């Protein structure tokens, strides 16, 4: 059976690939097998991958909100836009979870010009800059022009004293983080230039997706029991992660959610973050 990808390319339906993505939601094998059987009765020649995703999401949601939330992860990260400001905050939290200090949205003077830097991290007196390349579309990849441009900014900022954590901080390394993927040329150039890359699926064993799953760093945009407007209100209040709701129980009442719905939101967030 042929299906249509987001890019418009026509490919063969891959049952095992769909099964793998459903298992990553946390649903057990028996539930996934039942869902696959139902899905295979609903899909047809020429169906889009977007439609398959919507069908799978709806079926998972009937089984478990938290499974649907985890399955929705990549789309949820795209909701940290549209400009990527909340994505930068999300990435800062990711580094903090790994033992770094992190500051966002800094303006630093380089040798030639000033630069807006998305995130600056520090661990063991070693300071690095992190540039976030946010894409609101699923198929937009970061090509070699991205590390070329960011390397020039890093070279203008490194080996100079900056007032960040102290009065004489020196930026010694640079990361580029994207919510999508890097092209092979971008990866090759970064390796050659000493830049660190982090994307949805790269590096394979330490990718953005794997870090999120391993540390339960799910953004609140994953949660199926909240509306988009409610998620936006929470992010404005600096609630970026689902687990931060569990640490700030009064925040849901503050944005006007009813007690009954609060119970549902907390249940989903708890299951998603494995608190219970």
List keywords for this structure.
alpha/beta, 13 helices, single chain, six-stranded mixed sheet, 276 residues, Trna Endonuclease, Chain: A, domain 1, two-stranded antiparallel sheet, 3 domains
Describe this protein's structure.
- This protein has helices at residues 15-23, 29-42, 49-63, 65-71, 73-78, 85-97, 145-157, 184-193, 208-215, 228-236, 242-247, 250-254, 259-272; strands spanning 2-4, 10-12, 101-109, 114-123, 126-133, 161-162, 169-178, 196-198.
- The chain is an alpha/beta fold and 276 residues long.
- The protein folds into three domains: 2-63, no CATH class; 85-215, Trna Endonuclease, Chain: A, domain 1; 219-272.
Question: What is the element layout, followed by pairings?
Answer:
Blueprint: E1 2-4, E2 10-12, H1 15-23, H2 29-42, H3 49-63, H4 65-71, H5 73-78, H6 85-97, E3 101-109, E4 114-123, E5 126-133, H7 145-157, E6 161-162, E7 169-178, H8 184-193, E8 196-198, H9 208-215, H10 228-236, H11 242-247, H12 250-254, H13 259-272
Mean pLDDT value:
93
How would you characterize the largest beta sheet?
6 strands, mixed
CATH topology (fold) name of the largest domain: Trna Endonuclease, Chain: A, domain 1
Q: Which geometry do the CA atoms define?
A: globular
Task: Give the amount of beta strand, in percent.
Answer: 15-25%
């Amino acid at each position: 059976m042929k299906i249509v990808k987001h890019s418009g390319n026509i490919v063969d339906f891959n049952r095992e690939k769909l099964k793998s993505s459903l298992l990553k939601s946390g649903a057990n094998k028996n539930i996934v097998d039942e869902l696959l059987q139902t899905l295979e009765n609903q899909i047809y020649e020429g169906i889009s991958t977007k439609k398959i995703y919507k069908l799978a999401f709806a079926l998972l949601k009937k089984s478990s909100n938290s499974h649907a939330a985890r399955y929705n992860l990549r789309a949820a990260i795209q909701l940290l836009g549209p400009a990527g400001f909340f994505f930068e905050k999300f990435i800062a939290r990711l580094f903090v979870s790994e033992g770094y200090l992190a500051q966002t949205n800094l303006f630093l003077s380089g040798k030639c010009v000033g630069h807006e830097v998305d995130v600056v991290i520090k661990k063991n007196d070693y300071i690095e800059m992190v540039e976030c390349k946010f894409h609101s579309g699923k198929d937009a990849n970061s090509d070699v022009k991205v590390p070329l441009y960011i390397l020039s900014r890093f070279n203008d900022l490194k080996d100079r004293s900056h007032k960040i954590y102290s009065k004489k901080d020196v930026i010694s390394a640079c990361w580029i983080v994207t919510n999508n993927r890097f092209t092979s040329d971008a990866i090759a150039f970064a390796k050659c230039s000493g830049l660190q890359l982090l994307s949805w699926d790269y590096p394979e064993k330490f990718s953005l997706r794997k870090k999120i799953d391993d540390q339960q760093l799910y953004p609140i945009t994953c949660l199926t029991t909240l509306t988009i407007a409610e998620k936006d209100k929470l992010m404005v209040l600096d609630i970026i992660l689902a687990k931060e709701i569990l640490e700030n129980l009064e925040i849901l009442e503050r944005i006007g959610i009813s007690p009954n719905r609060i119970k549902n939101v907390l249940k989903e967030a708890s299951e998603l973050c494995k608190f219970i």
